[in-house]
Please model this.
Amino acid sequence: MPKLGPIKHKQLIKNLRQLGFDGPFAGGNHSYLKRGNLKVWIPNPHESNIGPHFLRKILKQAGISESEWEAL
Model:
């Protein structure tokens, strides 16, 4: 059951794949994952973790509820 941040870049991708997303694909400045016609832009990998505020924005863009995320 993943918490709502902070989370590592690799773990974010792994969790989104479990929720049916494919990728990551290169897309200009940032990579993205795709599920159907929906694209979710993800931050570039860096040393620090993705914080809860930014994670909420990513989940909102992906159409994933907090309860769905925590149920993984």
Summary: The beta strands are 22-27, 30-35, 38-42. The CA atoms of residues 6 and 51 lie 4 Å apart.
